[in-house]
Specification:
The complex is a heterodimer of chains A (456) and B (100). With 456 residues, chain A is of the alpha/beta class. Chain A contains twelve helices and 23 strands. Classes of the chains: A alpha/beta (456), B mainly alpha (100).
Chain lengths: 456, 100
């Protein structure tokens, strides 16, 4: 890749809040036709946006921001290119910017006098702005709503430093194809499109999360980097077209959002033998805390109590909750994630809020799901708590059958086998008392498996 | 034979029997004849988890869970108690607001 070497030689010299706009305009200058985004990939509606078009969007918006100086911008675009242009322009023009996912739209009331910018990328005229803020030399903040996995969404305050802290700018990362299956307005999704745009990459956004649409997008658009949740990967491996799976040329898989269990990691190595597999531990509030690259579940036990390369420090509360201290000056923060020592590792056992309490017994749904998935014929599984006036909660589960089923198996025989395995390997309160066969497990907007009963 | 007050009571009684048999069948236990005076725990072998499962199955079929706002669980000792609980919580039995 000789072209990549000269692609963005001065990027690291630019002020951090300028880097996104700098990278987009610089790639557009050198390679105007290079594709920045492929949207609705894997479908007939596929459309692409080149760097020249993206850079024009950024420049126009910068001119408007420079002239009108709004107090702050709420990025309201439905299209990724709009979000990217808003972020780039606001960064270089020192205008605070906020990204609110659909479930956090109500929080916009906290951002008084901020201006919403949608896909039209227009701003109200100066006369319509009651309050304005002059250009300040200090870079502004970036606000990202938390995903609401544990509790209602909140606005988390970030700097451009924390937003770009995990971005990899070295030459080996330049000009690659990145898959975006995360919600583009959330922390995990933003990390993917920021990374792609900062390195002259091609961001591929599939038209849906259906396994074959995602796989078609990967194959057709030359995706080599696949960031996703374990749930998504499991779905691609179990329900994806095997011929598409075999042609996908994935160099790197970055798992995040949920714990990856051992069986999934083994399956992934078999399906993508050439890919480097890593697992990122990050939250919207803390950003990326650590990254595990040895392909094993959890993280090395030796990391607990020692300083990490990022400068952070991990510890464990008495009840097993992972605590993170980002730097020596910052306070320890409870993550809500429960860990357990297994040999020379600490493995994630679930979220504190996910624990199902059945007659006083505490059940970790992830453990139940692992056992459900171990039964031949089960492709996917979800365990959750059903409220019960008798026992507080009751373990309920949904399973998706493999297609095709194993030889001689029927849906009834798989169901019976599931119950038999659960009775043999789980304590009685943990055995699912309600077991439904479903066509698909519903996932949250963040691509995770919901642990509570969904509203009816 | 137990006397039922209405057709809906007959249906509810049958649904309760089916639910209990389902709960007992799933983990491979045998369900003998369910006598109306049988003690849920001592005679039939329904523990609190089984009772909770029965309540969920019944809620799915009947659309009601009388345990949620109802009596303390120990008050429901026999199949008759269980039937009575559901009979009295059935919407068909609730006095209509517009009734004179």
């Amino acid at each position: 890749m000789t072209a990549a070497a000269a692609l963005l030689p001065n990027l690291a010299d630019a002020p951090i809040e300028d880097r996104l706009a700098f990278a987009i305009t610089e790639v557009a200058r050198q390679f105007p036709d290079r594709i920045a985004i492929v949207a609705d990939a894997g479908s007939d509606q596929r459309r692409s946006i080149d760097y020249a078009t993206l850079a024009t969007m950024v420049t126009r918006l910068e001119e408007m921001l420079d002239e009108r100086r709004p107090v702050g911008i709420v990025a309201r675009g439905a299209r990724v290119e709009s979000l990217m242009a808003v972020a780039a322009a606001c960064g270089r023009q020192h205008v605070p910017v906020a990204f609110l996912a659909d479930d956090a739209r109500d929080l916009v009331g906290e951002l008084r006098d901020w201006v919403a910018v949608d896909d039209s990328l227009t701003l109200p005229p100066v006369s319509a702005l009651e309050y304005r803020r002059e250009f300040e030399p200090v870079p502004p903040n970036v606000i990202v709503a938390t995903s609401g996995t544990s509790g209602p969404p909140r606005l988390a305050d970030h700097s451009w430093e924390s937003l770009l802290a995990a971005a990899r700018l070295a030459e080996q990362w330049h000009g690659l194809g990145w898959l975006l299956v995360y919600d583009a307005t959330r922390w995990a999704g933003m990390q993917v499109w920021l990374q792609s745009a900062l390195t002259g990459g091609r961001l591929v956004v599939p038209a849906s999360r259906a396994p074959d649409t995602v796989l078609k997008a990967i194959v057709d658009e030359g995706v080599s980097i696949l960031p996703g949740t374990p749930t998504l990967l499991r779905r691609l491996l179990s329900a994806g077209d095997p011929s598409l799976l075999a042609t996908a040329k994935i160099d790197r898989i970055t798992l995040g959002g949920e714990a990856a269990d051992g069986p999934l990691l083994v399956q992934m190595r078999q399906a993508f033998p050439a890919a480097k597999i890593s697992h990122v531990y990050a939250t919207t509030e803390l950003g990326e805390v650590f990254r595990v690259t040895d392909g094993r579940p959890g993280f090395p036990a030796a990391w607990l109590g020692r300083a990490l390369p990022s400068g952070g420090r991990l510890s464990m509360r008495r009840d097993g909750e992972l605590l993170v201290q980002l730097s020596r000056d910052s306070a320890e923060v409870g993550t809500g994630d429960l860990i357990e020592r297994v040999g020379d590792r600490y493995e994630f056992t679930g979220r504190r809020g996910d624990v199902i309490v059945v007659g006083g017994a505490k059940i970790l749904p992830a453990r139940v799901e692992e056992i459900l998935r171990s039964v031949p014929g089960v492709a996917e599984a979800r365990a959750y708590g059903l409220p019960s006036a008798v026992t507080g909660e009751l373990v309920a589960a949904e399973i998706v059958l493999t297609d095709p089923l194993p030889a001689h198996a029927t849906p009834e025989s798989v169901r019976a086998a599931v119950l038999e395995v659960c009775c043999a390997r789980l304590d009685p309160p943990a055995v699912p008392r309600v077991l439904d066969l479903v066509k698909a497990i519903v996932t949250t907007a963040a691509g995770k498996v919901p642990r509570r009963r969904l509203g009816r | 034979m137990h006397e039922f007050a209405s057709d809906s009571d007959t249906v509810i009684a049958a649904v309760i029997d089916t639910a209990i048999r389902t709960v007992l069948r799933d983990p491979g236990r045998e369900a003998d004849a369910l006598g109306v005076e049988s003690l849920l725990q001592a005679d039939i072998g329904l523990d609190s988890l089984d009772l909770a499962q029965t309540a969920v199955l019944l809620e799915r079929t009947l659309g009601i869970d009388p345990f949620r706002n109802g009596p303390a669980v120990p008050a429901v000792r026999t199949i008759v108690d269980l039937r009575a609980l559901y009979f009295h919580s059935s919407p068909d039995r609730l006095p209509r607001k517009d009734a004179p």
